[in-house]
Specification:
The protein has helices at about 10-15, 65-70; strands spanning about 5-10, 25-30, 40-45, 55, 60-65. The protein is an alpha+beta fold. It has a 5-stranded antiparallel sheet. The radius of gyration is 12 Å and the shape is globular.
Length: about 70
């Protein structure tokens, strides 16, 4: 995952009953303890859209282009 990638939550992909919450990676969280396992995301819709940025674990996110490849 790199800055500028379009992402969504893995849990939303697994649960078809909730709408997908899309966001763009705007930065990488730098910490010596986490080895860059977190990123800053700006969401465009959903419950996190009102925030300027949201700190997210990379393990909880999936690239949107990966979802489209699996569904087609």
């Amino acid at each position: 995952m790199q800055i500028g990638d379009l992402v969504t939550w893995k849990s939303d992909v697994l649960n078809d009953k909730v709408p997908l919450e899309y966001g763009v990676i705007i930065g990488i969280f730098r910490s010596s303890k986490r080895n860059n396992r977190c990123v800053w995301v700006k969401f465009g819709n959903g419950q996190h859209a009102h925030r300027d940025r949201t700190l997210c674990s990379i393990d909880h996110l999936v690239l949107v282009e990966d979802i489209k490849q699996k569904r087609t």
